[in-house]
């Protein structure tokens, strides 16, 4: 379900979702995104590794929630462009009856959602909402049309909360959505941090391109989003260290990206 009027797709202004798609090896981007993406790689060569590792974290977290925590509803806010192993594919692969709602406000994302975000199972539901995460009340209202808010829901903010205008605004967004979901729901969240000066510089330079600014936070600021919730082992950690699979053990890339999975009491 999408709003009747979507903003036009701008191919002359870079967009973080399309640049992220480029870093992950996707083809859903424009020349301006590739140009900015390459410039960003010169500033911070680790950013493409962060992009790939963030998807691996999503896969592991969703698989855990579907297989071990028994979650059957997922609200993926700021989903970005469909690439590989999207939330609905992982969740419905583990539990075919899973219901997934994606949220984004980029017209290119929504155009691809219509074509690609289809059920991987007959039992499940895959839908999307055209909305800005700065309006979490609207997201909750729209999501109620698809998800059952009397049953646990996993809320996901995967590398998007840097678009919040301030740390206080970031916490407001997370808490507004989490207050609406019942006990037993989960929060999955990660973001890049100021630990990497190259990443900070990258974000500063990106803002000069006309794209929506992205504000890196400290580890403590990112972790504060989990206050009041029960962090699942191993807790708040670098995303490469959150329950790596056996094939991912050994020497892991060092990237300044942190997150976790937490349960609402």
Automatic annotation (TrEMBL):
Q: Name one GO biological process term.
A: methylation
Q: Which domain of life is it from?
A: Bacteria
Sorted alphabetically, the keyword list is: Methyltransferase, Transferase
For this protein, what is any one GO molecular function term?
methyltransferase activity
InterPro entries named among the record's database cross-references: SAM-dependent_MTases_sf, SAM_dep_MeTrfase_SAV2177_type
Question: What is one Pfam family matched by this protein?
Answer: Methyltransf_19
**Is the Coiled coil keyword given for this protein?**
no
Q: What is this protein called?
A: SAM-dependent methyltransferase
Which source organism does the UniProt entry give? Streptomyces smyrnaeus
């Amino acid at each position: 379900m999408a709003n009747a009027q979507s903003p036009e797709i701008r191919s002359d202004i870079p967009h973080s979702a399309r640049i992220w798609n480029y870093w992950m090896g996707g083809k859903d981007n424009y020349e301006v995104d590739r140009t900015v993406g390459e410039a960003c790689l010169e500033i911070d060569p680790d950013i493409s590794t962060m992009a790939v590792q963030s998807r691996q974290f999503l896969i592991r977290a969703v698989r855990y929630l579907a297989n071990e925590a028994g979650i059957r509803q997922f609200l993926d806010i700021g989903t970005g462009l469909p690439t590989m192993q999207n939330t609905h594919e992982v969740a419905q692969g583990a539990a075919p009856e899973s219901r997934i709602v994606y949220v984004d406000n980029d017209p290119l994302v929504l155009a691809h959602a219509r074509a690609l975000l289809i059920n991987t199972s007959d039992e499940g539901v895959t839908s999307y909402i055209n909305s800005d995460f700065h309006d979490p009340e609207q997201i909750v209202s729209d999501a109620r049309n698809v998800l059952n808010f009397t049953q646990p829901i996993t809320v996901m903010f995967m590398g998007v909360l840097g678009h919040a205008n301030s740390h206080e605004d970031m916490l407001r967004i997370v808490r507004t959505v989490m207050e609406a979901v019942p006990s037993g729901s989960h929060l999955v969240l990660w973001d890049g941090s100021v630990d990497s000066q190259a990443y900070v510089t990258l974000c500063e330079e990106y803002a000069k391109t006309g794209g929506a600014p992205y504000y890196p936070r400290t580890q403590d600021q990112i972790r504060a989003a989990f206050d009041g919730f029960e962090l699942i082992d191993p807790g708040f950690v670098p995303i490469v260290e959150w329950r790596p699979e056996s094939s991912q053990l050994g020497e892991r890339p060092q990237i300044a990206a942190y997150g976790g999975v937490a349960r609402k009491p």
